[in-house]
Specification:
261 residues; alpha/beta; Calcium-transporting ATPase, cytoplasmic domain N; three-stranded antiparallel beta sheet; three-stranded parallel beta sheet; 9 helices; ATPase_P-typ_cyto_dom_N; Putative copper-transporting ATPase HMA5 (Trinotate prediction); ATP hydrolysis activity
């Protein structure tokens, strides 16, 4: 609100909904212009003084160069991408079509994003929310796994379970790949150590004495060391997994400009 000694004016800057809320009329000719602009993936911010619209800004966020590659790779892994956007339908539709996202939501405020994620998780769906802004915080907190981009706000990073340190979106593929290898390694180590101990402990306790097989203490000690080394060696394979995961997500073949139509 602008105030001086003699004049008081209400200045409103924001989306079309904010203009309507403050009874600021947007001419039909401007609506057509804005619709055409939004169809090209831009966002429009209106400016009004009192009850009159005086103009608008056009803001265009470039699609990340590795976004298309990342989305297609997720779909090949049977991970369904869903886009939650606060932009108009035309802008959201343009971006979704460029990236190959079939399910998308538009004109969503932060609370509505949270409600969508809550609805998905109620049916047992595992939901990972990737965001970088303040308006993504409650959606990140509601998701099964909250992921923040390194270039995002500090508040989003504090809320997220995982923070991608670089600004490269395809590092999300590294995260998924390493997570799966880590869980596979934990499961494998647990199974191997359980089988080994179930077999070795009774033998070390003398269960085979009746057939003349008596395990000496030093042999049992070596067997225990072998058990620990086998688990450690299995875990060391994660180093190879890191190299593999980085290789499959390094230098994506498509970018936001050269992606196939």
């Amino acid at each position: 609100e602008y105030i001086n000694e003699n004049i008081t004016k209400l200045i409103v800057v924001g989306k079309e909904e904010l203009m309507n809320l403050n009874h600021i009329f947007i001419p039909n000719s401007v609506e057509k212009e804005v619709s055409t602009i939004c169809n090209q993936g831009a966002t429009v911010v209106f400016v009004g003084i009192d009850s009159r619209m005086i103009g608008y800004f056009v803001i265009r966020d470039e699609i990340r160069s590795d976004a298309f590659y990342t989305i297609q790779n997720l779909k090949m892994q049977n991970i369904k991408p869903v886009m939650l956007s606060g932009d108009r339908m035309e802008t959201s539709q343009y971006v979704a079509n460029k990236l190959g996202i079939e399910e998308y939501y538009f004109n969503k405020i932060p609370e509505e994003k949270r409600e969508i994620i809550e609805e998905l998780t109620q049916y047992g769906t595992k939901v990972a929310m990737v965001g970088d802004g303040i308006n993504d915080i409650i959606a990140i907190a509601q998701s099964t796994v909250g992921i923040s981009i390194g270039s995002g706000s500090d508040v989003a990073a504090e809320t997220a379970n995982v923070v991608l340190m670089s600004n490269k979106l395809h590092d999300l593929l590294n995260l998924i790949c390493l997570s799966r290898y880590t869980m596979n390694t934990v499961t494998r180590n647990l199974v191997l150590s359980s089988i080994y101990n179930l077999m070795a402990v009774p033998i070390a306790g003398g269960s085979l004495k009746w057939v003349g097989l008596d395990i000496q203490p030093w042999i049992a000690s070596i067997a225990m060391v072998v058990s620990s080394l086998s688990v450690t060696g299995s875990s060391m394979l994660l180093l190879l997994s890191v190299m593999f995961c980085i290789k499959i997500s390094f230098n994506p073949p498509f970018d936001g400009v050269n992606q196939p139509e």
